[in-house]
Amino acid sequence: MMKIGYLGPKATFTDLAVTTMFPQAEKISYDTIPECIDAVSHGKVELGVVPLENALEGSVNLTIDYLIHEQSLPIVGEIIAPIQQHLMVHPYHVNGWKDVQEIYSHSHAIAQCHKFLHTHFKKAKYVYMTSTSAAAKFVSEHPHLHIAAIANRLAAEEYGLTIVRENIHDYDYNHTRFIIVRRQNEELTIDSPLYAGDKTTLMITLPKDQAGALHQVLSAFAWRKLNLTKIESRPAKTGLGNYFFIIDIDQKMDDVLIPGAIAELEALDCTVQVLGSYPYYIV
Amino acid sequence: MMKIGYLGPKATFTDLAVTTMFPQAEKISYDTIPECIDAVSHGKVELGVVPLENALEGSVNLTIDYLIHEQSLPIVGEIIAPIQQHLMVHPYHVNGWKDVQEIYSHSHAIAQCHKFLHTHFKKAKYVYMTSTSAAAKFVSEHPHLHIAAIANRLAAEEYGLTIVRENIHDYDYNHTRFIIVRRQNEELTIDSPLYAGDKTTLMITLPKDQAGALHQVLSAFAWRKLNLTKIESRPAKTGLGNYFFIIDIDQKMDDVLIPGAIAELEALDCTVQVLGSYPYYIV
């Protein structure tokens, strides 16, 4: 059975993504993103799954920064998962759920359900926990308290809570992205119905901060009709005002176009690193 | 005295930024980014300060998303603050600090001090709190426990802890950006020695997902020699695969160049929104 490390604790959104994508795997939870990436690097787990974008638990920046500065592991896959927040209570309180006095969750989850809470629980007190799953756990352990948690489906199952209102998040199209990293750059051989396409992620460092340099860089992709689905400048840790760019191209690494673009960028004194060329899955 | 709302609780990094930038102001803490922005919008505070990038407490994405989708307030200033993490203990434990058994902090702060902790506290247990300041508070309230917190200077002062090791974060050039929002788009009239320059932030929506569209957009800036210091694509909440871009130009709104670029983009069927043109301060 394949061992997969993920950013824990149990029943977070990362766990939900891993469970949906790899129902057969043995899951091992890690407390921080660096610990999870280190575990892959040291061969304790075969794959690691950590949030990359828009995450509730775990800093997005940490993932890319750690991969770039500390442990250079290839990205071998990506999981895109909708953020679906549910209101849940202890089974004792299913009938009286509208009158709960306190709502427990991660502060970002509470912010994501701002409109729903503002409409239905204007008088409730919000209590912040370190994760949505810690909130669900707390509610399950305090059946005598008249409280609710906001968390995902998996947390309700894990801690025996009853979902009393589904999908209370404000935006339907809010997604989290998780990347799958591996020690060696071997292709994931998963024949999954969730497969949705391929992409290639590059890290590009410009020679110096100059007007139009980024435009010149993008020309290398544009005239080859390589479509970019993400571009993000990130401060380098080498000094204030130094940046690098993370770019996603919506296709697999090929023999001609992407290598040609990279060669052109290097001729312009850019540094280019391929962080991965991999399939993505929508769960 | 000017009232300033900020993302709380007390003694977080947002509080530290506000305290450094506006030492004379009356500070009012809000539990979430939406609440803080709403308070500005409803006139309860004159300015609001919320994290925009690289934050420990508070999701970066939430700030831009809330400003774009819910409360369209202008950005009138920016504060750039280094992330400096310190190890602190109750004064009782100053001598024995190297033997603390548990270290309390926000999970991101613990991740940011990964190398230091890995070297000096390999056997300690890490306990996650909802914020660095909550960790400092807990340590101050449990003098009998042999524990430490990782938090900022302000938290040590606020909760009477002693810093036993300064600057334990892994990277010196790690910064957080905070934006200052206001109900009306009036200039901040602060004559501050921390003033470091001006920038203009635009939100640009491309007409459709097409190869090279972004390149075309950047041309409008490049040939005018407008220098971009940040570019970030963000998923729109209108459907998977829809994006908008946030762009920072390193100058104030002028009468010719930026309006010219905007007119050109609109002629290309882009939607352009000026989120603010404002001074930035490095604290």
Automatic annotation (TrEMBL), chains A, B:
The record marks T176 as: Essential for prephenate dehydratase activity. It catalyses: prephenate + H(+) = 3-phenylpyruvate + CO2 + H2O. Residues 202-279 form the ACT domain. Pfam families: ACT, PDT. Its EC number is 4.2.1.51. Residues 3-183 form the Prephenate dehydratase domain. GO terms for biological process: L-phenylalanine biosynthetic process. Gene3D superfamilies: 3.30.70.260, Periplasmic binding protein-like II. InterPro entries: ACT-like_dom_sf (IPR045865), ACT_dom (IPR002912), Chor_mutase/pphenate_deHydtase (IPR008242), Preph_deHydtase (IPR001086), Preph_deHydtase_CS (IPR018528). GO terms for molecular function: prephenate dehydratase activity. Pathway: Amino-acid biosynthesis; L-phenylalanine biosynthesis; phenylpyruvate from prephenate: step 1/1. Keywords: Amino-acid biosynthesis, Aromatic amino acid biosynthesis, Lyase, Phenylalanine biosynthesis. It is an enzyme of class 4 (lyase). One of its GO terms (cellular component) is cytoplasm. It comes from the Bacteria. This is Prephenate dehydratase. The gene is pheA.
